[in-house]
Amino acid sequence: MKIGIVDTTFSRIDMGRIAIDELKNYAGVKYVRRTVPGIKDIPVEAKKLIEEENCDIVVTLGWVGRAEKDALSYIALSVGKIIAELMTNKHIIDVTIHEDEAEDEKTLLRVAENRVREHVRNAIDLVRNPERLTKHAGTGQRQGYEDIGPILK
Amino acid sequence: MKIGIVDTTFSRIDMGRIAIDELKNYAGVKYVRRTVPGIKDIPVEAKKLIEEENCDIVVTLGWVGRAEKDALSYIALSVGKIIAELMTNKHIIDVTIHEDEAEDEKTLLRVAENRVREHVRNAIDLVRNPERLTKHAGTGQRQGYEDIGPILK
Amino acid sequence: MKIGIVDTTFSRIDMGRIAIDELKNYAGVKYVRRTVPGIKDIPVEAKKLIEEENCDIVVTLGWVGRAEKDALSYIALSVGKIIAELMTNKHIIDVTIHEDEAEDEKTLLRVAENRVREHVRNAIDLVRNPERLTKHAGTGQRQGYEDIGPILK
Amino acid sequence: MKIGIVDTTFSRIDMGRIAIDELKNYAGVKYVRRTVPGIKDIPVEAKKLIEEENCDIVVTLGWVGRAEKDALSYIALSVGKIIAELMTNKHIIDVTIHEDEAEDEKTLLRVAENRVREHVRNAIDLVRNPERLTKHAGTGQRQGYEDIGPILK
Amino acid sequence: MKIGIVDTTFSRIDMGRIAIDELKNYAGVKYVRRTVPGIKDIPVEAKKLIEEENCDIVVTLGWVGRAEKDALSYIALSVGKIIAELMTNKHIIDVTIHEDEAEDEKTLLRVAENRVREHVRNAIDLVRNPERLTKHAGTGQRQGYEDIGPILK
């Protein structure tokens, strides 16, 4: 299988490097990495990786700043990534770090590291072992933080 | 008829299991179940079930967290599910639980259980007995809670 | 001409019945009625009535609750109905009642009754007598309430 | 050249009449005018004027009320007009009056009159003399109000 | 390579002129410049430059006012530019100045000048040297302001 990785120069953490490091744990997974300026440039790059580079799936790595206009860009990214998926019938797994989701930089770094690695594993499962995701259906998985767990009777 | 079921690992309740349990009450309904990480991954999976697995309709089972960014993802999901429907001319019935819509987990569990079952029945009626929905037009149906009922003269 | 009517089981008023009653005033207008669970299910049903039932125009009858997430669904409905129109080059006249737009149920009932009837007339004019709409251009028409009227020099 | 004009019965000012009056200053410009109920009906009418009436460009004339749901409709209109443009590769110049942008009706009337006329001129320039727009690039043009002017070193 | 430049008459700074000036530093880069009235007119012009003028990439130069409705237009622009990219499989680099992002006009002028020049360089790298962007992945690049830099362990 072939996986696409798209990250940004806007991000304050080299998320693409983490994703590629995680891929080393999987034999036989080829990858192509592309870097764009910011999150609004991500959807078309993901679509190009699918259509021009024959990727089976793409993991996109975005970073959203604290300003209100950054939230607006996040909506545009989210709608855009879904339209790109609908045009290609392939999954694009969106990993986003919101700069205001943690108090300090150390925590952000840990969250980003975990979230990228977990979503790379999700992407590989979606292509190779979709039934592994079904085993975890409804279990309150949280990428980057500890899983919150299921609500049980 | 064949129905698609899409749920998430993010959800804290195994909504897919409830949907499949409800389907047992209906003879001759086949199903395919897929699980994706979160709600923004739902639209393309629903479209794939329609186009690649020949489902007549899909029920999608989403879970929206309490954070503001989760509301933004909910907009993207909603627009995406409608575009997927418009591209396929098939219904995708979206069942969403908002984590903040109930005070305690017990209530959430009951709401989710009811809402999933009622929307599975809606989906089957849309394909098999659309006139049954017309009988309930304008009657204030509320999936998950008690029906609020019609406003009468 | 053939008109499509789409309403919901979520609505607390049988808006479809009102629309069909209004149609009796017009000779030679055939109709097809479909009922879906909620407003996010409306756009694809409208598109199917145009493409599979050969309707010349569709009137959709939605009901928006008081919760904030209902406002988000209203955006999705609005964008979806416009995309459905752009894909078919046919008008879809959206009649929406917002549950919080009136103080009491009696007023809501009166507003809904008027708004549905006026928009059914608009739909018929759009197909049969578009110049009748032009006669009322810029006159501050308000469906459901009294017209607010034009601003004059 | 042929220009399309779309206005609404919701508007409180006959903006279509103003647009057509402005067109008299230009020789050889044909026009087609259509009126729809409200702003969400505008995008498909503009697309039909381009595709079915062979208009080179369309000027759409909308009126947005004071209610919050009117702002939501404005988003839908804006996204819809852009998608219509992308599907046709033609410009649709959107002239919108927001009922709350002026204190009194007299001012609204003056703003509307100016804004419509200026955007009709923009539309004609876009087709006939696009380089005239480039001459005014970055000069802080404001249609309806006085130009705010450029920021100079 | 051939680059498209789209700017507006609404902008208070001649951003197109700055972009073209920056292009002089690059040999063999041809350009086409178009000016439209405002930001909602940008996406279709960018698409036309790609499809009708064979541009490899487009840099769009927008200016967003202080009013709330300007924020709504910014969402529409952002979604529209992404859809235009998805329809053409080409990048459209969006450079936006928000009038309220700086206290005084002098700062706005400096931010705009820097942001336009940096994004022109990004656009050229995306076409000619995409690996140069990857070298800066995750380094907290900020166009217009000083780079914020990476978060390091």
Automatic annotation (TrEMBL), chains A, B, C, D, E:
Enumerate the InterPro entries for this protein.
LS/RS (IPR002180), LS/RS_sf (IPR036467), Ribfl_synth_arc (IPR006399)
- Which reaction(s) are listed as its catalytic activity? 2 6,7-dimethyl-8-(1-D-ribityl)lumazine + H(+) = 5-amino-6-(D-ribitylamino)uracil + riboflavin
Q: According to the UniProt record, what class of enzyme is this?
A: transferase
Q: Is Transferase set as a keyword in this record?
A: yes
Q: Which UniProt keywords apply?
A: Riboflavin biosynthesis, Transferase
This entry's Enzyme Commission designation comes to 2.5.1.9
UniProt GO molecular function:
riboflavin synthase activity
Transferase: present as a keyword of the record? yes
Q: What pathway is this protein a component of?
A: Cofactor biosynthesis; riboflavin biosynthesis; riboflavin from 2-hydroxy-3-oxobutyl phosphate and 5-amino-6-(D-ribitylamino)uracil: step 2/2
UniProt similarity note: Belongs to the DMRL synthase family.
User: What name has this protein been given in UniProt?
Assistant: Riboflavin synthase
In which organism is this protein found?
A: Geoglobus acetivorans
**According to the entry, what is the taxonomic lineage of the organism?**
Archaea, Methanobacteriati, Methanobacteriota, Archaeoglobi, Archaeoglobales
Name the gene that codes for it.
ribC
